[in-house]
Amino acid sequence: MSMDAGAAIDTPAIEITGLHKWFGAFHVLIDINLKIDRGERIVICGPSGSGKSTLLRCINRLEDFQRGQIVVDGMLLTQDVRRVDAVRREIGMVFQQFNLFPHLTVLENCALAPIQVRGMPKREAEQRAMHFLERVKIPEQAGKYPSQLSGGQQQRVAIARALCMNPKLMMFDEPTSALDPEMVKEVLDTMVELALDGMTMLVVTHEMTFARQVANRIVFMDAGEIIEINAPVPFFAHPRHERTKLFLSQILP
Amino acid sequence: MEAPTVAASRTNSAAVAYVRAAPAAAVLPPLTTVGVLAWFKDRLFSSVGSTVMTILIVLLLAWILPPLIDFLIVDATWSGSDREACLPSPARPEVGACWPFIGDRLAYVTYGSYPVASRWRVDAFFAMLACGTAWLLWLEAPRRDIGAVYFFVVLPLASLALLHGFPTLGLAVVDTAFWGGMMVTIVVAAVGIVTSLPIGIVLALGRRSKMPAVRLLCTLFIEIVRGVPLITVLFMASVMLPLFLPDTWSPDKLMRALVGVALFSSAYMAEVVRAGLQSIPRGQYDAAHALGLSFWQTSRLIVLPQALTVTIPNIVNSYIALFKDTTLVFFVGIFDFLKTIEAARADPKWSTSVTSATGYIFAALVYFVFCYAMSRYASRMEKRLGVGENR
Questions:
Q1: A231 to chain B, minimum CA–CA distance in Å?
Q2: pLDDT of B299-352, one tens digit each?
Q3: Which residues, in sequence order, are CB contacts of B271 under 8 Å at separation 6+?
Q4: Residue B278 forms part of a structural domain
Q5: What number of other Cβ atoms are within 10 A of residue B51's Cβ?
Q6: Does any domain span residue B7?
Q7: How far is residue B183's CA from residue B115's CA, in Å, rounded to a whole number?
Q8: Which of A74, B132, B351, B358 is most open to solvent, judged by the fewest CB atoms within 10 Å of its CB?
Q9: A62:B290 CB<8 A
Q10: What residues of chain A lie within 8 A of the CB of B286, using their CB?
Q11: Residue B234 belongs to a domain with what CATH number?
Q12: How many domains does chain B have?
């Protein structure tokens, strides 16, 4: 069977093999190998500049890479525009800066991609958008513009917007880093609920409480390399690599 | 010495602790912050500098306005049939504007030498254009989608049939050599305004393209056209173009000027739009792409609506400049509005010392009305679109 036949039950959600990426002469991702099963929840942590966000952005091809291969849901990621779009349709992404479309209402933000990309009728797309806005507990904000919402509300809209595409996998790129402290919890709660529903999740975050609570495995990256992968309990209790120990000693109280 | 100080500060901090027991009552604002007096003080006399400015401006107005009003209204001539009415006489030593001259030549500066019997066609064109413009510009108008089709498809074709002629429908062909006055100015400006935005958008996107050939082509076009005065573009279009084309296919003189104006304004519009595109944060592209939107969907639905909104002042600025630049077409022998004023003021029938001034003031007023209307509309649009978008 070819790589593209896709979607057999035991196909991993993501399989990354020997991935290298350079920004000019700077080697930003070095020999990344990572397999994520369906329903798995992976938290990626590490110091800033370690390549965590770049890794996420390579998976849905927001960034180019030079060597190695990424297979998403059985589809090999190539240069081909149609293939890239097909992969992107299956991956929902939530950004640090929310990146809502400021000229569209909350409802329009959510309904846009299902209408334009999936060709869904407008009514159905809006019903769907309302369904997910209810799930992130802000249906009453549907008619407002993003700038009228708090940061936490905007990030929940961003989650709903990604869910409206019915993705098989959700990626979060530091979803709470740009939030005021009192709004972090509402976003994390939404993400926990998503995890409880069985969504496959790949989360870059510094929220170690969330990682303990939700992650199946924690990936620690530093200077473009994966240093250590482990389940949360041993990861926090007995970090094996020196750099992991140093990192944890710096961020944990 | 230290011990007492520490003790003192402790007592102080205990006294600083405070809990509000009842809500504070609202108090009416003092007279100096509301009402007419406050407005005057706030806007006109808030500081020494502003008081000096206020006085200077009042003096300036007192110096300029009375003679202007005298010339335009008090001393002006309001009726008459030839130059006699506007000549100074012992009874009327001061003669102001000669308005009957404008009244007499109004048809000429509106239609040029367009055949009198067919001028209703120009009027029909004006009416259709006015309807289409209002339909598009009035944001609450019903069925603006039909309005857009009407404006961008029906109107150009109908205008061509009406103005140039369509023998099958009994509309005799009127050669563009007979066109003139306001109708030419409006045709040139409308063609420039309607074509420059879409072409400019394509050029701006092309200049930011990742494909080197497309980028080079668009950049070359923009830089070459921008590096040359409009007059040169018009001369090239009207004089050099025929040299490169076969004798049998020589496009109309006005058509050549229209193409020149459209290309010229497109190059400028491209740079205006590019500035808007650059103001859109990368995160917007990321989010759109992550949702699976294609390049054209991202441009059309996410990037351009935002980029064009922030560039409305610059777009309208270009339109205003373009509207006034249409006067340059008279260099290639086309009688636009200003040129017909020029021709009319040289008419011996109305030759007086105030005819030229009257003609130019009238021209200035007409240009001002059009440009100011564009400016006002743009600022209203800005306010409207600004709602809910203050990032």
A1: 29
A2: 999 999 999 888 888 899 999 999 999 999 988 888 999 999 999 988 888 888
A3: B204, B222, B226
A4: yes
A5: 12
A6: no
A7: 13
A8: B351
A9: yes
A10: 57, 62, 93, 95, 99
A11: 1.10.3720.10
A12: 1
